[in-house]
Amino acid sequence: MSFHSIPVLDLSLAADFNTKPTFLRSLRHALLEVGFLYIKNTGISDELIENVIAQGKAFFDLPEAKKLEIQMKNARSFLGYNVLGNEITAFKTDWREQIDLSTPHPLPKPSDPLYYNLLAPNQWPDPDYLPEFRSTFESYIHQMSNLSTTFTSLIAESLHLPHTAFDRFFDPDQQHKLKIVKYPDLTFLPLDDRDQQQRQGVGPHKDSMLTSYLLQASHHRGLQAQNLAGEWIDCPPLPGTLVVAMGQGLEVLTHGVCASTTHRVLSPAAGEGPRYSIPFFQGVSYDATFEAVDVPPEMLEMKEKFVESGGGKRNDD
User: Fold this and answer.
1) Strands 241-246 and 36-40, how do they pair?
2) Which of 272, 222, 267, 271 is nearest to 243 (CA)?
3) 3 to each of 30, 155, 205, 293, how far by Cα in Å?
């Protein structure tokens, strides 16, 4: 049976001994049958969220020359600014402009493996233009790091695993990544009639790693998740929430029990103005050995019964 709406979970219930079992049951349902959910009452202050949104939008109002000063191609870390239309998903252009940030790390030593180049300082916009940008996003990344660690432990508990089951996949100073994304409306995109109809902000894809957390930073619809029948289900912005997506890494580590759901973003229609979003991607150690966790048999059976109820196949890939 395919989902037709995205569940909303109240994270504050997990902090209360009396309500935590109810929360874990709801989380287990979302993990096994949807792979996508909203969380509310996250513990992140409204003031910080408002500042994150304001500073994120302000970045795109910078002069083009100031944004190009911190282009991603300037660094080996794959952190920094990307111009509109510079990325491709599912063989089509993603019509988005973005900046990538991460948990701060020093430059790697010459003796370090090449992949340690991914661990590096951020490229920050000129503080003379955006004096509060860096402090705002460093605070948000720090708080989201803690939130993602807590949430991953709750995922483990919901599957009847120890709350530390996924800890071995994280470094003590684990790097996590964040994007600030602007999707222009169709008025500003060089599209023919066919592409106008498809409206690809980001093409259909699944996230990697374990979990990701999306702050929908404007009122626009556009995010959609695909159910097992292949239908696209809207995930509209809900004030005070984050959208959580399960990654392919989590699906593999749990023997397929946790669903990684295909999703996409449609560009805003002409005249609607730009859509903004700020996804946070929980990282894993680059040195981790990825061996599946010992998911209890009853969880595997629950997942198998759910898949069988849908005809034994998935049409969301």
Assistant:
1) antiparallel
2) 222
3) 10, 20, 18, 26
Report the chain's C-alpha Rg in angstroms: 20
Q: Does the structure show a pLDDT above 80 at 210?
A: yes
Amino acid letter for position 191: L
Strand partners, 177: 102, 281
What's the N-to-C CA distance of the chain in angstroms? 16
**Tens of pLDDT, residues 177-197:** 999 999 999 988 876 655 556
Sign, Cα dihedral of 35, 36, 40, 42: positive
Taking residues 65-78, report their average pLDDT: 93
Nearest by Cα to 290 from 258, 260, 250, 243: 250
User: Which residues share a beta bridge with 40?
Assistant: 10, 241
Q: Report the DSSP pairing between strands 211-216 and 92-94.
A: unpaired
For 107-151, how does the pLDDT look when each residue is reduced to its tens digit (9 = 90+)? Answer: 888 888 888 888 889 999 999 999 999 999 999 999 999 999 999
The burial of 146, by beta-carbon neighbours within 10 Å (0-12 exposed, 13-18 middle, 19 or more buried), is given as exposed
Quote the pLDDT of residue 315: 54
The length of the chain, given as a count of residues: 317
